[in-house]
Amino acid sequence: MTQQFEAVSFQWPKGYYNDGIEIGLGQVDKLDFGYLVSEVPASAAGTYTTNQFQAAPTKLTKNTINVAHQLQAVVLNSAIANSCTGKQGEADALTEQALLADKLDIDKALVGVASTGLIGAPLPMAKIEAGMAQLTPHHGDAVTKAVMTTDKKPKHACVQLELAGKTVTITGFAKGSGMIHPKMATMLGFVTTDAAIDGELLQQTLSAEVDTTFNQITVDGDTSTNDMVVVMANGQAGTPELTAAGSADYDTFAAGLHYVLGELAKQIAADGEGATKLVECNVANAFNEKEGQQVAKAIVGSSLVKTAIFGQDPNWGRILSTVGATNAHVDTDHVTIEVNGIQMVKDSIALPFDEEQASNAMGTDKVTINVDLNAGNKTGQAWGCDLTYEYVKINATYRT
């Protein structure tokens, strides 16, 4: 992507509203139920977890979007995943879909369902039905909080761009903190825009952009049963419909979508359970893009690299060995490694550097690892976080 964007303050595109409320689904007092609604039917696209145990709401939303690539609303909840709940879970997801469709007086084929939280627990449908009646239109950010589980804060991103002389807004929000290793995708993400784009083209665009954003983050190497990214484009900005790739306006839209997805991906990585640092890995001179992405993600996903970063230990050998453990092309005599601006390896041999200075340099909120494979001219990028004592504590007591 050659176009550059700057973040703008959080705002919804034209024609959307939402709500988030507390209905007591979990053990913690917090918003846990909500909806996201477009005033008109919108083109829609989605990407979904590759975990073989795909949860009922995820399967339902995938099947719903795939019919005509349209949605108008999504009902969502945290605390309970409605995963591995059998036929009853499937029936409950269908009930949620029908309840929101009735509330909004729209076809249920325009309603998606999203859940996140504890696997194996059934939804308390009496609470769900009562909560549905309480949802009212708002234009704040309550829905972004209703999907949070162990997240420390809401995650959202917004950008504005110009298409056909008119301003278009793309706004997204996501949850994700643990079980993050998308293939796609181990979190919930929702993106809204008032641009007009053909549904199938939107699907192609989302799938392509996910590969270099959400699919390039990892917290703990585990993939969830539930999660997905959904994009809705309702055309309320009044721009001509994008129907094919290749135009300047399409390229601008795709770049804007990439920016929003990338910002959300980095926020998820930085908010990994117990994390104290965002880790970014940039791979240069890879044999091809696939291998560049593979090596970058392997490095940010290595438990040994993650613990070294937590301890501010400039142990570059862990990075080099992770590179070697992949099947990527590598010039093993000419690899370069740099961490937060300090070059530690050149031509695959250690350079003299001040250990204390390097350790101090790793004490920032973001640690950037640059690796040159000297095997081609392609690049790769991935994001992760450090592995801390707090991560173990959170996940050792998640159910109890």
UniProtKB/TrEMBL annotation:
One of the entry's Gene Ontology molecular-function terms is: L-glutamate N-acetyltransferase activity
Catalytic activity reads: L-glutamate + acetyl-CoA = N-acetyl-L-glutamate + CoA + H(+); N(2)-acetyl-L-ornithine + L-glutamate = N-acetyl-L-glutamate + L-ornithine
Q: What is any one GO biological process for this UniProt entry?
A: L-arginine biosynthetic process
Q: Which keywords does UniProt give here? A: Acyltransferase, Amino-acid biosynthesis, Arginine biosynthesis, Autocatalytic cleavage, Cytoplasm, Multifunctional enzyme, Transferase
| Marked site: Cleavage | A185, T186
Q: What is its EC number?
A: 2.3.1.35, 2.3.1.1
Transferase recorded as keyword: yes
The pathway it acts in is:
Amino-acid biosynthesis; L-arginine biosynthesis; N(2)-acetyl-L-ornithine from L-glutamate: step 1/4; Amino-acid biosynthesis; L-arginine biosynthesis; L-ornithine and N-acetyl-L-glutamate from L-glutamate and N(2)-acetyl-L-ornithine (cyclic): step 1/1
Location of the active site: T186 (nucleophile)
Q: How does it assemble?
A: Heterotetramer of two alpha and two beta chains.
The protein's name = Arginine biosynthesis bifunctional protein ArgJ
